[in-house]
Amino acid sequence: MGKSRPLNQTCPVSPTGLDLAKLRRGKPRSYREWIALRRWGKLPEWEREVPGFLLRRAREAAGLTQAALAERFGTSQQAVAQAERWQSNPTLAFIQAWSRCCGARVRLVVESSARQGRTAASEP
Asked: Alpha-carbon distance 34 to 79, whole Å?
């Protein structure tokens, strides 16, 4: 193994002048890395709700293997594996059907950014 280099997390700008806060990860994270960073609260906001990883998390919480979920879902194990990938883009109907098979529920929240500053007393 090579030498490990410490990460400089206090520097918002890299030595090359790039704004590190604006950089986006190009390569998908592994599920294990994602779940650990999520648990520690270290994921960037845009990575917190990766649909494929959320599907996998629901399946694992239900104690199901990919094969067992595939049987309940009426599909193949390979299709389940593909749906659990970083790059998957499932529809809401698909997510709802998946969650029913896992004994979970789906909660979708859509908020207007204009309403964030209002208090409960000012709502219509």
From this structure: 21
Angstrom distance (rounded) from CA 55 to CA 77: 14
The torsion angle over the Cα atoms of residues 12, 13, 18 and 20, rounded to 10 degrees, is: -20
pLDDT > 70? residue 119: no
Report the alpha-carbon distance of residue 54 to residue 79 in Å, rounded. Answer: 16
**pTM, whole model, 2 decimals?**
0.65
For the chain, what is the radius of gyration of the CA atoms? 19
Average pLDDT over residues 44-67: 89
- Give the pLDDT confidence of 7-38 residue by residue, as tens digits: 444 444 445 665 655 656 667 788 888 888 88
Concatenating the DSSP letter of every residue in 42-91 gives -S-GGGTT-HHHHHHHHHHHTT--HHHHHHHHTS-HHHHHHHTSTT----
